[in-house]
Amino acid sequence: MASKTIGLTIYVQLPTQVKKTPVVQSVVNNFDYHGDLLSLKRLDGESNVDYRNRLFDVTVHRGGPSYEGVLNNIGRELGYIRQKAITIELKLHSDGSPIATNPRVDILANKVVLYSDWRPNGTSVIDRTIRFYQLDDTGYYLMNLISAINQSPYFMATMEVGIRRNLHSFLLVRGTSDRIIVDDYIRADKFQQLDNIQIIQNSLSFAEKGIFDTEVASSPTSEGQYYVDYTNGTVESYDLPSGDGTCSYHYAEFPMEVDYLPVQIFTLQDDDFQYELFDKETLDSGSSVNALPNVEGSEIYHQLFMNTKVFWGE
């Protein structure tokens, strides 16, 4: 039987020019190996310098399940690093002592609260509240927030070099100047220098109740009495402590450094955030309560329902 060869011809029309944007592919190096150890991958096209800065940031702004930890992780994964934006300090008398009795600053979801006399028992005195969440609020832009803080007789604020004056204040990382110490060591000495200064009045508590029983306004003169210099963080007792005791207290940390990050986390349980999501209704008693969601609140709830499995019924 004779064999035959069948030939096939395939015709393909090619374009005369081919245009394609090259993909930047970083060369793997030691930074990438460190990134594997820290579970932080290099971003597409990220330079060694920027990647190194994010790797360093892992140890500076640690991640975790807390508000700041989650905020740090999200920002870092998106290529952002927290930066110091403003510094808040205390205004002083001529002798160098703070004008405020018990100063405190709280950076909340929608405002800054300045306390001239903060007490843990709920009898605090607010110097002023500066809102910054909406465009028409007093401190919406960072330059306006600093101006409003500087109008306080107790506090002053400065902006860090390189920070834009028209940065939105709601990008500030929430925090407080209040710090809590639960186990400061008390030596076997009638004169104690606590580890911190600017102690908040009515917040000191001692383990040795017999020795630290009655607080007096000057040097103690009888058993059980003690005197506290709250500004300088010193304690003088009449009796000699055993050397095994501790004390707990609140203190104010100033200067207070406030960071910013273009990532924010809010919870619907946050009263300050809820305030911005609803219209307000005034009751006959004169108190104000949340009514229907406003435009922003409606959009947020709509997005939640769109992305969450919700089942109505029993």
Task: Furnish the topology, listing elements before pairings.
Blueprint: H1 30-38, H2 48-60, H3 67-77, E1 83-90, E2 104-107, E3 111-117, E4 125-131, H4 142-150, E5 155-159, E6 175-176, E7 178-185, E8 191-193, E9 205-206, E10 214-216, E11 225-229, E12 234-237, E13 246-252, E14 256-260, H5 271-274, E15 278-282, E16 288-293, H6 295-307
Quick structural summary:
The chain is α+β, with helices and mostly antiparallel strands.
Account of the protein in words:
By secondary structure, the chain is α+β, with helices and mostly antiparallel strands. The protein folds into four domains: 30-81, no CATH class; 82-177 and 253-264, no CATH class; 179-252, no CATH class; 277-308, no CATH class. The protein is 19% helix and 26% strand. It has helices spanning 30-38, 48-60, 67-77, 142-150, 271-274, 295-307; strands at 83-90, 104-107, 111-117, 125-131, 155-159, 175-176, 178-185, 191-193, 205-206, 214-216, 225-229, 234-237, 246-252, 256-260, 278-282, 288-293. A four-stranded antiparallel β-sheet has the order 4-3-2-6, covered by helices on one side. A four-stranded mixed β-sheet has the order 8-12-11-10, with no helix packed on it. The mean pLDDT is 88.
